[in-house]
Amino acid sequence: MSSPFDIRIEGLFSSSIELARLLDEIPLGVLLLDRHSKILMMNPAMEALTGYRLEETLGLPCCDVLRSNFCPMTCPAQEELKGGKPICLEGDIINRDRHKISIRLTSAPIKDASGRILGFIETLEDLRLLQQLDKDLGTAFGFGPLLGRSPKMEEIFKILPAIARTDSSVLITGETGTGKDVLAEAIHQASDRARHPFIKVNCGALPETLLESELFGHKKGAFTGAVADKPGRLRLAHNGTLYLTEIGDLPLPLQVKLLTFLDDKVVFPLGSTKGFQADVRIIAATHRDLERMVLEGRFREDLLFRLKVVQLHLPPLRERDGDLSLIMDHFLALFSSRFGKKVSGFSDEVRQKLLSYSYPGNVRELRNVVEYSVNICQEEQIKPKHLPTYLFELGSERLEKDTSSQRIQPAVLSAPHEKTAGTNWTSIERQLIIDALIKAKGRKSKAAEILGWGRSTLWRKMKQHGLEA
Amino acid sequence: MATLGDGGDMENQRTVVLPHASPEDLCHLILSEGVGTVICNGIEEEYYQYLTWKKIAVMDFVMGPWARALEQHQRGELQPGAILFESQERTPNV
Q: How many domains does chain B have?
């Protein structure tokens, strides 16, 4: 059989066209299978969904690549062999990043003139967007999963739909925990690119050489250990959005390469002279002051100008008047439902305490506080005893809300931080786990019970804090 | 589920059918049976992390007949991501 890239369709147009090119631009994942459900062809959307490249999967059973929950029970293709009718199923697949993705699969037999089934065509639709939209229907204040009714957030919400519709690069700034990742994904989901991949790359998480290969991909043999071609994240984000988080940590040589891509829109994998024209929208985020980094020579000015075509600044929670209460109640409802608890509200004392705290960790910290409290609470109302102890242990300065209308300057905030060094939420939670384990004499199930968590929550958090078994 | 002796020889082999598909139940079974290595194709990140945290080796993304995977594992040659189909098995029937 010839390579799938060489197959051409004759007679449809005035000249022949490549089948692969025809499938390339379809936003749904498309699979062509033989009679025995072996893979003959898949399009880039399917490659992005599964994480496998066509070359790797040729001739493999479809179920081994899709890994759907319905494959062991109902193989759509085998059902069609019996009935000969198209089948539509909803389920999930596990991709190469070990993520579970909700999908809708439509499978139809391909028949010859005599009605004999030759193979199958399957399309996979990513349902995550639809599921998110369903969830958002109940959200009165906000944009996507972002909540807020403070003037600063309303200003952002007002311009977001228009920004989402354009292809301009976006730079999101804001303190840690303000929701930069959530905003980036919300922009993607509200854009025309929503049906295409949203690919996230943390520029601070990988060393320079690995990051280059991760972003731009490499050819087989480009360097020691490059045993196969690898499509970079830019290639995988074709027609979609590439989200570069912690852009301030991007090494200078890669800043130049990214700059070149933003100008030419062509990706050159390592070791390859053949470029790929990628249509990718870039969203970048950082908690760093990029202007200052430019002055210090640590960030390229020309890259900054290309990235901040649209700049969005997410305000810290302490500047979002009126949002605290809304977000507290939202997280309470979310975690009560998720953990199957009947917690319906906060006591007045708790509400007062939570409203007067300054939240240096912003929305993420508030979320953690509410998650912890709902976990611990066995009653219908969250009382002070259910709150994390660090809220009470810290000096009163931190609990006093800044009532002045002036913006709290980082210098002002840094004083209590210094005093409480080592007593942030992370270290307190770590200490709580250690205390519970000591009380439980090392028995993790007992420790989980003391903390009011499930065993899996405990192991996840132990791992997060580096507390090995 | 296969039990291997010190030399890698198979001492025992059995099939376990769970009442319903549940990753939690499967993890519980793996732990309660003292399994040392799990060979599978797809596994969610959460369960992969859980099992590896429990010091269980997980060979995931393995594709092919289970007997061939077990043979390779017995020889100490099995790697995550191994595709164990022969080339003639991958030839499409069109």
A: 1
The fold for domain A323-404 equals Helicase, Ruva Protein; domain 3 (1.10.8)
Q: Is A76 exposed, middle or buried (0-12, 13-18, 19+ CB in 10 A)?
A: buried
- ipTM tops 0.85: yes
Residue B65 resides in a domain: yes
pLDDT of residue A405: 35
Span(s) in chain A for CATH 1.10.10 = 429-469
Nearest-by-Cβ selection for B43 from A94, A456, A463: A94
- pLDDT tens string A290-348: 999 999 899 999 999 999 899 999 999 988 888 888 899 989 988 888 888 888 889 99
Residue A225 CB neighbours (<10 A): 8
Residue A67 at interface with chain B, using a CB cutoff of 8 Å: yes
For the CA atoms of A7, A11, A12, A17, the dihedral, rounded to the nearest 10 degrees, stands at 30
List CB contacts of A19: < 8 A, sequence separation 6 or more. A4, A7, A8, A9, A41
**CATH number listed for the domain at residues A131-315:** 3.40.50.300
Select the residue of A38, A39, A67 nearest B42 (Cβ to Cβ). A67
Q: What is the mean pLDDT of residues A402-427?
A: 42
Q: What average pLDDT does range A198-223 have in this prediction? A: 85
Closest CA in chain B for residue A58:
B90
User: Is B77 domain-assigned?
Assistant: yes
Q: What is the mean pLDDT of residues A362-368?
A: 92
Is residue B83 included in any domain, yes or no? yes
Please give the torsion angle defined by the CA atoms of residues A262, A266, A269 and A271, in that order, rounded to the nearest 10 degrees: -110
Any idea which fold A8-125 has? Beta-Lactamase (3.30.450)
Percentage of chain A surpassing pLDDT 70? 90
For residue A4, the chain B residue with the least C-alpha distance is: B92
Smallest CA–CA distance from B21 into chain A, residue: A69
Q: Could you read off the pLDDT of A87-99 as tens digits, one per residue?
A: 888 899 999 999 9
Contact B94/A59, CB-based, under 8 Å? no
| Calpha distance A45→A108 (Å, rounded) | 18
CA B51, B57, B63, B64 torsion-angle sign = negative
CA distance A402 to A318: 8
CA distance, residue B67 to nearest chain A CA (Å): 16
Dihedral sign of CA atoms A151, A157, A158, A163 in order: positive
Domain extent for B27? 20-90
Best probe of the B interface among A38, A41, A53, by most B CBs < 10 A, is A38
- Is the pLDDT at A361 greater than 70, yes or no? yes
CATH 3.40.50.300 boundaries in chain A: 131-315
Q: Does any domain span residue B4?
A: no
CB–CB contacts below 8 A, A to B: 64
* Chain A residues closer than 8 Å to B44 by CB: 94, 98-100
Residues of CATH 1.10.8.60 domain(s) within chain A? 323-404
Instruction: Write the class of the CATH domain A429-469.
Output: mainly alpha
